[in-house]
Amino acid sequence: MGGVAKMPAGLSWLLLGVVLAFGVAASPAQASRRANHYDFFIKETKVTRLCHEKTILAVNGQFPGPTIYARAGDVVVVNVYNQGNKNITLHWHGVDQPRNPWFDGPEYITQCPIQPGANFTYRIIFSEEEGTVWWHAHSDFDRATVHGAIVVHPKRGSAYPYTKPHKEMPIILGEWWNVDVQQLLEETMRTGSDVNISDANTINGQPGDLFPCSKNGTFRMPVEHGKTYLLRIINAGLTNEMFFAVAGHRLTVVGTDGRYLKPFTVDHIMISPGQTMNALLVADRPTDGTGNSRYYMAARTFASNTQLSANNSTATAILEYTDAPPSAGPPDLPSLPAVNDIAAATAYTAQLRSLVTKDHPVDVPTHVDEHMLVTLAVNLLPCGANETCKGPISGTTRLAASLNNVSFVLPPVDVLDAYYYSIRGVYEPDFPNKPPFFFNFTDRLPLELSFTKRGTKVKVVEYGAVVEVVFQDTGILGAESHPMHLHGFSFYVVGRGFGNFDKNTDPATYNLVDPPYQNTVSVPKAGWAAIRFRAANPGAWFMHCHFDRHTVWGMDTVFIVKNGKTPDAQMMPRPTTMPKC
What we know:
Elements: E1 33-34, E2 37-49, E3 52-59, E4 68-71, E5 75-82, E6 90-93, E7 119-125, E8 131-137, E9 147-153, E10 167-176, H1 181-191, E11 200-203, E12 220-223, E13 228-235, E14 241-246, E15 251-256, E16 259-266, E17 269-271, E18 276-282, E19 294-302, E20 314-321, H2 342-349, E21 370-382, E22 397-403, E23 406-408, H3 415-420, E24 453-455, E25 458-461, E26 466-473, E27 482-486, E28 491-498, E29 517-518, E30 520-523, E31 527-534, E32 539-545, H4 548-553, E33 556-561
């Protein structure tokens, strides 16, 4: 992964050299933003965290990267110049990209990577998204530092379905490793071992002043008494679900994944990797000197599988009142749930419900054409010849992951091109609708029954078909929650529960009235989550766990949605500018 894959003989004519499709390229000396047009220069950048300097990949020298601003229905063009030392791609997470899979971004799924020294222009088509989505690298572990927010405002003449905030602020939760993340990936792929835990959680790229050498860099958000602020919270972490809170302030959650919610007020949120949450904060603390003028924002790991090592540190940022006298003491610290508090995470997630108004209706499918039960598992594979493995059975196994016991393998040619040109041998169109055998999925199995098989299997569906996917967690090598993300679609999360899904009784508990409309769902530990979507976006769309180690281990598949009969139900033509493998 990340290297230059060899194209099968006879196919090199399919992919041309990289050129720009959207006019004259901006030079590095020009501004990095024009109206609906951004220039992203990806290059190695030196940063210091935790008393340690290292080189990271970053966009325009920023970590996190620049924020993209758009309105619902806009088209945004991003010129990407790869001035780094490795292949890379970018993904526009939560943007459906109608009929436009070519610019979705995951490497070897919809495109070949942008090679060092090359450039590629993405065309991002916004449709119904409104709120907060985000962008990130979709190659190797690059998104650890290559990521940023996308703010999607209502169309001109439209308004928020709540009081307009005084100011808005992206709050990006992430993780920091002192080691190079590429070396981290290469080690786990070489040995089949688990990924070492991060050294710190971060808020807007900083661990906060509870960590050494971190006081000066701590993110600070100024506020004024009596004003309302919109926090656009994103979990960009590679491995951790997170609890987040602000001391002394409650949060009114109004949106998730670029869609509006019925407002509800909480002391803390739980947010999975890939998800976004929009929350209103009212700066209502006293400013007459009787109270503190500074309050910690704090983020801490939620780890559902306590058998795995986890980074239990607390990242902090500071909310500070500019119209209050300075406090002599430290900021107040919020109370966050314990690292393994499944009840707190479940109670929060249960409150997510779509807004449902005339301007923001729902369209929950009630008839299903394709029923799928998809098991999620961390598995084993036998150690290959001449390999030194460090899996659970030392020396003989490596860790893997699977959906329905298929551990996905990235092909040497991207799936979308193979589908578009009918190239044989790149993928198999027979991803199963159910696991190969049924058992008590939430029990832990003996190690010898934990093995999976590799394959590049995809699911092909007809245009317009209504698909229901029930994600079922398994106890193979330990049950845990999984943030499952689907490219190209938002979906209704119509149900969730613990234990084994029962197709005869559990559908009666579905919410078909106001389920949340998301693109990333947190499947509960030893439980299930049911989603529904209408396959009305032709193309090849990746579905995967947003824990990155599970992605590279194979907890993935691809939905290929066929073209419909009318021109507006068919994929746009393949751009001539696609990168070559």
